[in-house]
Write a structure and sequence with these properties.
two-stranded antiparallel ribbon, single chain, 5 helices
C-alpha cells in the first residue's frame, strides 16, 4: 500500500500545469504518520519540490526516522526545509 502511495505522489495526473494538486499533500501527510526508515530518501526528495504543503509533513517524517531536529522553535518550515535538504544531501544513507 505504501509503495502505491509513493508512486501516486509523483504521478503526472497529480499535477496541473506544473502545479501540485491538493492530493499530494494528503498523500505525504498519510505516509508521514508512520514513516519507515527505508523511506528516508523519499521524504528527503519530497522537500526538494516547491509544494510547501509537503514540506512540514516530510520534515516530521525525517525527524521521526532520524530522531534529529534542526532549527529552533522559531524556525520557519522553509528554514528547517533547507537544513534537512542539506543533511540528506550530506547523508544519503542512514
Amino acid at each position: 500500500m505504501r509503495d502505491l502511495l509513493w508512486s501516486e505522489l509523483n504521478a503526472s495526473y497529480n499535477f496541473r500545469k506544473g502545479q501540485s494538486l491538493w492530493v499530494r499533500g494528503q498523500i505525504v501527510e498519510k505516509l508521514s504518520s508512520n514513516p519507515q526508515k527505508k523511506e528516508y530518501t523519499l521524504f528527503g526528495n519530497a522537500l526538494k519540490g516547491t509544494d510547501e504543503k509537503l514540506h512540514a509533513f516530510a520534515i516530521q517524517a525525517l525527524e521521526n526516522i532520524t530522531q534529529r531536529k534542526f532549527g529552533t522553535v522559531k524556525s520557519t518550515v522553509s528554514e528547517k526545509r533547507n537544513l534537512w535538504i542539506d543533511f540528506v544531501r550530506k547523508n544519503p544513507k542512514l
